[in-house]
Amino acid sequence: MPWLKTWAEDGWNTQAALGAFERLPLATLGDMIGRWRGAELPTGHPLDGLLALYGWRGKRFTDADAVDPLLFERDGQIMALDPGKLPLGLALSLPRIARTEAARGLFRAILPLLATRAPKARLRMVEQGGQTSAAMVYDELPIIDHFRRVDETRVLGLMDLRLTPAPFFFLLTREP
Length: 176
Prior knowledge:
It is a single chain. With 176 residues, the protein is of the alpha+beta class. The protein has a single domain (2-174), classed as Lipocalin. The chain contains 7 helices and 9 strands, in the order H-H-H-E-H-E-E-E-H-H-H-E-E-E-E-E. A 9-stranded antiparallel sheet has the order 4-3-2-1-9-8-7-6-5, with helices on both faces.
């Protein structure tokens, strides 16, 4: 889809992103099962570029009650992280520090301490923008990721984070 390529390369404002999201078909819980590769879609959100900078790989949905919301890659190994252990508030309030090489080095060094074997989110049908679609509800953070289908192998994600006034957008592509 050409609009996704334009968005990924040039960025969009939040209103254009919301419009695209709301026009897409609804996702079901079954649509989400599997492992997904993640990519950020820039809108000027404070988190834009940060996940990729730190090695974000994507998400894994085993079933409706077992979701790994944050998969990261280190030395070729994929590990699930506990989002509750991440300093999200600090990254949002001090974005320049979060983007330094020193911060990234510290993150890489402590990555095994942030890992978890327990699921840290659930899939539910949740209303957003007047429509009910599949959403991932974090267990310990005020975050809901809403999903819409782009096609058979991709979904658009809208992260509703209580700490920010605008949503964060990302694309998930199903892995084989």
